[in-house]
Amino acid sequence: MLMDVLPEQLGEWTDALSGQSYAWQAGTFVPGQLDAPKGHLVLLAEQLTKSALQQSLQILDAAGVQVEVASLKRIAEREVLNLRLSAWSPELKAHLQEIATSWDIACVPALPNGAQPGLVLMDMDSTAIQIECIDEIALLAGVGEEVAAVTRAAMEGALPFSESLRRRVGALAGADAAIIDQVIANMPLMPGLLTLVAGLKAMGWKVALASGGFTPFTGHLRQTLGLDADFANTLEIKDGRFTGKVLGNIVDAEAKARILCELAERYDIPLSQTVAVGDGANDLLMLAQAGLGVALHAKPLVQEQAPVCLNLLSLEGVLGLVQTA
């Protein structure tokens, strides 16, 4: 089956593929499968074009990588194409990422199996929700610019997270703790969050939050969305006002990675079946620990190091990655 005879929109390829696996050989698709795939390339977009596939195949051909079209699905109103690869390397991933200007990719050694039990652990601020809660608290407390600058430094990796958190919380000393309720009442969910959670729950997967933010916000999300667990920091409050201190151990990068492993053990889920999602430097250890680490609209440092980066799609793209295999 020649590429030229296939429609420009990959969404129209379903009938042509007829549910059969096809290998890419000498510029044409022929029925067949790879004997022992060593990696996956997943293309994701609202609408995938033939051009996106052609550009990807050029890079794979140049690298001598054999390709099998494993599946083409529409998941959460997005098109998801899964290619099995005969080889995988960080260099190959980097080349494919460079050309993905109008689509998202995941080029990884392995994908979780959506038909088996699994776990998704998400960061909260700028991942599950669209804001940084501490910045919103600080804004209402009248110290917004001071705290936002420290938040940026921490998320970009320029400042140790624990130090940055204590500095930011310290700036809140004396502010009315009722601010928390105001922020919760105006907490915008990240696009795709409800779709992701509903899809994962329908699959029987566990969903949890591990946040460098604060327990009132993660607890609200756990309760309203029916999540399985949440972990965050505890603000000290006395006489209805913030003391400027954090109680207990801080949920930092090391804690997030540890929480992922502990939850996987609690639910008897292999790490290969875990997915971590985050956007900041304090998420990198968690992303590296998971079977699949996904950076969502991430900071530059995280873009460079994360296993997978979703830059165009939102959290519904995570569901696409889980359900494509």
From TrEMBL:
Keywords: Amino-acid biosynthesis, Hydrolase, Magnesium, Metal-binding, Serine biosynthesis. It catalyses: O-phospho-D-serine + H2O = D-serine + phosphate; O-phospho-L-serine + H2O = L-serine + phosphate. InterPro entries: HAD-like_SerB, HAD-like_sf, HAD_sf, PSP. One of its GO terms (biological process) is L-serine biosynthetic process. The active site is at 123 (nucleophile), 125 (proton donor). Its EC number is 3.1.3.3. Pathway: Amino-acid biosynthesis; L-serine biosynthesis; L-serine from 3-phospho-D-glycerate: step 3/3. One of its GO terms (cellular component) is cytoplasm. NCBIfam families: HAD-SF-IB, serB. This is Phosphoserine phosphatase. It comes from Oceanisphaera profunda.
